[in-house]
Specification:
Elements (H helix, E strand, L loop, with lengths): L2 H10 L2 H16 L20 H12 L5 E8 L6 H15 L4 E5 L32 H10 L15 E7 L3 H19 L4 H37 L5 E6 L1 H35 L3 H24 L10 H26 L5 H28 L7 H31 L14 H12 L1 H21 L15 H12 L4 E8 L28 H16 L14 H16 L3 E5 L1 H11 L7 H10 L2 H7 L4 E2 L4 E8 L8 H15 L7 E4 L1 H35 L2 H24 L11 H27 L2 H10 L1 H17 L7 H32 L4
Antiparallel strand pairs: 1-3, 1-4, 2-3, 5-8, 5-9, 6-8, 7-8
Length: 845
């Protein structure tokens, strides 16, 4: 029995049974709709196998780096006035009352060594003054802060008008341990075969991680919500904004959630309007909407069942599902109406059967080519992008099944409604485009050539960048806060430089500290240097009165190491793209200010580190050196708002300079941070999409060859889509709009959806040409029938994507604009360039 007979027997003979089966399937998956979740965490936007991720986690674990939020405060009065300082104090106290807040560090809490008139020997907690100390000289304190290597451009802006409060969140040890245990097991599974017990344990850990992360995310959202509530009370005293990496993730999640709901409803409402405009009958509005309802809710249930989270990258999947489902339904409706008009004597079942038989193959191939385009995302190596590829692959299969089972089943049960002449009136737009192809074909070819040249130029200018500040509209709180932090308080995106000093030993008996690398300034480098060093070591040992039980860690920081840290620190500070740089050198320079700006020798450094109180050491020393691992950490932040910032170039330049200018090898330097992780993600995504785009084109070409059995026709069919994708990417390159984590998927999505137009047009052209054997006549006929369907579906898609421009999330706006523009170019190319190429090359015999 042929496929068509099986289909007719199942769907057309038993439509009620088909509807019931689909309803039961939908009911089953509806129980998993509550498991449908969103994820905008930092981990969701990094490469799954990125070795830098392991380094990033290792650094955060080793240096006990806490997650924190930043509150910027620009008071109406002078910051050092009593009213402003009192406001900062009250704000800090109110923030501390919120659960899960570990501490709040403000301008009131920082130690003021110069203002305290201390000498190195007098550094004790009780002797150090802060702005909370009574009778403190505020002008002197202000001068110290504005000139401090530690605090200027960090806690207080250079103009002295804006200050920052660092809100440290409590470390969630359970979550950190769970993450660490899971990461170790995942890493082991990649390197070797793990046991069955370990596999079961990993599955269990993955479940625990997903569940617990959901709790952490909700708790983090509540913390941010509570902080914002507190901040509102202080708006009357000045300009206050909230920023920080945790807030970026939370706001992205909030925007994604809003966009998912708003744009889903918006596209749905627009579809209702466009269907009514196109068909003017409630019947042709309700029927496609039922298909959309089934497709979308079934897909949401499937995602919940599979525990696939929707991320920033896949946040538009509902809009895409609606658009893809409705486009299939519009093609079916247009074809059904044409057949009703052509065969008025046939009954409803016959017309429906004929419609399905005529449209099954072109729709099947359009579904497969679109699936092929989305499947390119699966090879990106980035889990949310890969998941998006799989989501849309399954979503297209769902849309196809619903369109070819539910739609005809319901339509079969309905009475045949005669098609009136006014319902089949010709489209002025398609007639106009047909005239252009027939009478002005040379201009079509010339304009297409110009677009191709534009595309090549623009593609050469294309780049990828990741700027969180530019991800949000200027009117949003997060944009204002991040911009203020970026421009006045040291930058936004963090970067970490770890310098390892190899395994030089420190011997307590003879004080031979780093002899391989560090001849002390009192030691000659001549051949007699060793004897002089021995004499110097004896002097030092007497001066220290060294005990055999002395802790050698107190003498880890030597002038050689400090000088190396200082030179790297100063180099990083000199870069235009870099904001605030912090390291152990920052503290030492503060101490040198108390020492009449004289540099310390080895003994003085050791004494200094021993005398610093533990509470100060924990906040400004421990985060920057790890004696056990013989390494130092330099933390910096990138000025994310710079228009000419090229993150990948900056990272490569820093690496190159560290190796060439500072005699550091790859084993001595590790670079990590959010900047590295997101840059790696984007670079990998760009490479994978560019490389797989050729594979997608080849795959589509092969599918067209199978469908049309003509190499020439396949080439003709794919040209309009290449032109559409190339033109849009070219415009982005020329307009200096970088590809980001969302817009980088435009090429695959456009290629997948736009090829549908070519397939439908060529398939119909071949069918009509076999009847009249006249190219020009066939072109006119095709523009009247399939041309109208292509126009209607493309219009729906274009305006569907255009709704995205009202989002607060800039990548979503760009995605909507450029995908809609690509579909417009594909529409015009399909109805002008494609038919002109057919007229010229005459591929049909």
């Amino acid at each position: 029995m042929s496929l068509s007979k099986i289909y007719n027997k199942g769907v057309l003979d038993y439509p009620k049974v088909m509807i019931i089966i689909l309803a039961v399937i939908l009911l089953f998956f509806s129980f998993f709709i509550n498991d449908f979740k969103l994820d905008a965490s930092a981990d969701s936007l990094v490469l799954e196998n990125d070795t830098c991720l392991e380094t990033f986690r290792d650094i955060h674990e080793r240096y006990k780096i806490k997650k924190y939020l930043i509150i910027t405060f620009t008071p109406d009065k002078d910051i050092f006035s009593q009213d402003s300082l009192s406001c900062i104090n009250n704000l800090s106290n109110d923030i501390l009352k919120i659960n899960e807040i570990d501490s709040v560090i403000s301008i009131l809490d920082i130690p003021l060594l110069k203002t305290s008139n201390l000498k190195i020997s007098d550094i004790k907690t009780e002797n150090i003054k802060t702005l909370k100390t009574s009778n403190i000289n505020y002008e002197r304190a202000k001068t110290e802060i504005l000139n401090s290597p530690l605090y200027k451009d960090l806690i207080l802006s250079r103009d002295g008008k804006t200050t920052a409060l660092q809100v440290n969140l409590k470390i969630n040890l359970k979550f950190r341990n769970l993450l660490k245990e899971r990461a170790l097991l995942i890493d082991k599974s990649k390197k070797e075969n793990i046991s069955e017990y370990e596999q079961e344990k990993l599955i269990k850990l993955n479940r625990e991680y997903e569940d617990y992360y959901s709790q952490v995310s909700k708790k983090r959202h509540l913390i941010i919500k509570n902080i914002r509530s507190v901040i509102k009370k202080y708006n009357q005293f000045g300009e206050i904004y909230l920023g920080g990496v945790p807030m970026i993730a939370d706001d992205m999640l909030t925007f994604v959630r809003k966009d998912l709901i708003f744009f889903g409803i918006g596209v749905f409402a627009f579809i209702v309007i466009i269907l009514f405009v196109i068909f003017s009958k409630i019947k042709w509005v309700i029927l496609p909407l039922i298909s959309c309802f089934f497709s979308v809710f079934l897909m949401i249930g499937i995602l919940g069942f599979l525990s696939w989270k929707v991320t920033v990258i896949s946040s538009n999947f509902i809009s895409l599902m609606l658009i893809l489902t409705i486009s299939m339904n519009i093609h079916l409706i247009v074809r059904y109406k044409q057949l009703c008009n052509k065969y008025p004597s046939k009954n409803q079942k016959e017309i429906v059967g004929l419609t399905i038989n005529k449209m099954f193959m072109p729709c099947l191939y359009t579904a497969f080519t679109t699936i092929l385009a989305f499947s390119s995302l699966v090879f990106s190596g980035i889990k949310p992008v890969m998941d998006f590829g799989w989501m849309m692959t399954i979503g297209l299969l769902v849309a196809f099944v619903i369109s070819f089972i539910l739609f005809p089943s319901i339509l079969t049960l309905m009475k045949k409604i005669p098609t009136h002449l006014q319902e089949n009136k010709e489209s002025k737009i398609t007639n106009f485009l047909a005239t252009i192809s027939l009478s002005h074909g040379r201009y079509v070819l010339l304009f297409s050539l110009l677009l191709a040249i534009l595309s090549v130029w623009g593609l050469s200018e294309l780049k990828v960048e990741n700027s969180f500040i530019n991800y949000f509209k200027k009117t949003t709180e997060i944009h204002k806060g991040m911009l203020l932090i970026d421009q006045k308080l040291g930058g936004t995106t963090p970067l970490e430089i770890i310098i390892n000093f190899d395994t030089d030993t420190i011997k307590t008996n003879d004080l031979r500290i780093e002899t391989k690398k560090e001849p002390h300034n009192k030691i000659s480098s001549s051949e007699s240097g060793q004897n002089e060093y021995d004499e110097y070591a004896d002097e030092m040992e007497e001066e220290l009165d060294w005990d055999e039980d002395e802790n050698t860690n107190d003498y880890w920081l030597t002038p050689y190491k400090l000088n190396k840290i200082k030179t790297v620190h100063d180099y990083l500070s000199s870069l235009n793209e870099v904001g605030k740089v912090l390291s152990i050198a920052s503290l030492i320079r503060v101490a040198e200010g108390l020492n009449n700006s004289k540099e310390f020798d080895g003994l003085e450094l050791s004494v200094l580190l021993k005398k610093i109180p533990d509470e100060i050491k924990a906040s400004i020393i421990d985060p920057y050196i790890s004696i056990d691992h013989n390494e130092a950490r330099i933390s910096l932040r990138i000025l994310d708002s710079q228009n000419n910032l090229r993150r990948n170039e900056l990272i490569n330049r820093i690496k190159s300079d560290l190796y060439s200018k500072f005699s550091l090898s790859e084993k001595n330097v590790r670079i990590s941070g959010m900047l590295i992780l997101y840059n790696n993600m984007l670079q990998s995504l760009f490479k994978s999409q560019i490389l797989t785009l050729g594979t997608v084109l080849l795959g589509i070409l092969i599918m067209l060859l199978i469908l049309f059995r003509s190499f020439l026709l396949s080439i003709i069919g794919i040209i309009p889509n290449i032109l559409a994708v190339g033109t849009v990417l070219g415009i982005m390159g020329i307009a200096n709009i970088p590809l980001d984590m969302m817009t980088i998927t435009i090429a695959a999505i456009t290629m997948g959806i736009a090829i549908d137009n070519s397939i439908h047009y060529i398939y119909r052209f071949r069918e009509e040409f076999s009847k009249n054997k006249n190219y020009e006549e066939t072109l006119k006929i095709c523009h009247k029938n399939i041309g109208s369907a292509i126009l209607n579906t493309s219009t729906t898609i274009i305006f569907g994507f255009s709704i995205l421009i009202v989002s607060n999330f800039i990548p979503t706006i760009y995605f909507g604009i450029f995908t809609g523009l690509a579909m417009l170019i594909a529409l015009l190319s399909t109805l002008t360039l494609l038919p002109k190429l057919i007229l010229i090359l005459k591929p049909f015999k």
